[in-house]
Amino acid sequence: MALEDAAKQMDMAFTREDLKGPSYELTFGGATSFLRRKYTKDLTGVDIAVTGVPFDQAVTNRPGTRLGPRAIREASALQAPDAPYGWDFDVLSEFAIADYGDLAFDYGHVSQFPAALTAHIKTILDAGAASVVLGGDHYISFPILKAYAEKYGPISLLQFDAHTDTWQDDDMDRIDHGTMFYKAVKSGIVDPTTSVQVGIRTTNEDTMGVNIIDARKVHERGPQATVAQIKEILGDRPCYLTFDIDALDPAFAPGTGTPVWGGLTSAQASIMLRDLAGINIMGGDVVEVSPPFDTTGATAIAGAHVATEILSLLGYRMRTA
After folding, report:
1. Nearest Cα to 304, choosing from 120, 82, 74, 143?
2. pTM (2 decimals)?
3. Residue 156, pLDDT above cutoff 90
4. For labelling alongside 59, which of 4, 113, 205, 243 has CA 20 to 30 A away?
5. In the record's cofactor note, how is the cofactor described as bound (predicted)?
6. What is the pLDDT of residues 75-112, one digit of tens each?
7. At 228, is the pLDDT very low, low, confident or very high (cuts 50, 70, 90)?
């Protein structure tokens, strides 16, 4: 496909026949799958499945993250159809990437949601694909991690966030977006000694043994030194990357449930995500995009770029495996 194809092609999310390559469409029209990837429930031959989880039962203050997946997909249409900038390969052309749509669940039976999400991700993993998840409040990472730990064993967590989300909560059935990584460590699905949280800037006395690189350290030492420390902690262990959009300062991402000043800049985040190439990443998510609190769309744009970087990190790992 070439640029002139934009004059005669539309709705490639439904009409394209393959799962690879760019999609040249009018940025202001067409079906807005993630990066114009093909919408399909057929995972045959899929390398990476992008899926949405429109869930926000457990936000502290600002609701609206259930609208995050839709907003991120729409914002992704603004990205150039060319290879993601800064990488020496094009993940969209080399790998079969599909938009697997959103998780279906009964909003009237919230207690059934975690198992439904774990099964949803397990379906993707059992098909031989990796998942990139668009959230949704941050609780969703816990059911997702259960599916990954079932396949890979205790997994390392790489978390970009303003909060550790390790506040004590021994009720494993309780759904809370601030305690799920306490539960993930305590239940043995996350190895804290080889896990790291980046951008933290809220007080929590018990970090469950997870390594912390707070926002001030990132600002003082810079992205490159931060990445070097992250890679040293992770080693070559299988890891899962979760990016809470409030890792970014509210100046760059105001549309989130729990904004905290002093955060990462979008430039710092972009440098770190690209320089993380080579980590043994198995999957990832971007969460807490709450469109009602950002009429500019900047937060959704940031979320779309983060998801694109996660795709590229996965592709880099797959092509060098």
Report:
1. 74
2. 0.96
3. yes
4. 205
5. Binds 2 manganese ions per subunit.
6. 999 988 888 999 999 999 999 999 999 999 999 999 99
7. very high
Mark the binding-site residues, compressed into ranges. 138, 161, 163, 165, 244, 246
- d(CA 45, CA 96) in angstroms, rounded, equals 7
User: How far is it, in rounded angstroms, from Cα 234 to Cα 222?
Assistant: 19
Write out the binding residues for Mn(2+): 138, 161, 163, 165, 244, 246
Distances (CA, A) of 42 to 29, 39, 47, 115: 25, 9, 12, 21
Question: How distant, in Å, are the alpha carbons of 159, 189, 229 from that of 234?
Answer: 12, 15, 9
User: What is residue 23's predicted lDDT score, i.e. its pLDDT?
Assistant: 81
- pLDDT value for 168: 96
Considering the chain, what is the average pLDDT of its residues?
A: 95
Q: Phi and psi of 317, rounded to 5°?
A: -65, -40
Strands 130-135 and 196-200: unpaired
**Which of 286, 264, 155 lies closest to 217, judged by CA?**
264
Which residue ranges form the domains of the chain, and what is each CATH number?
Answer: 41-320 (3.40.800.10)
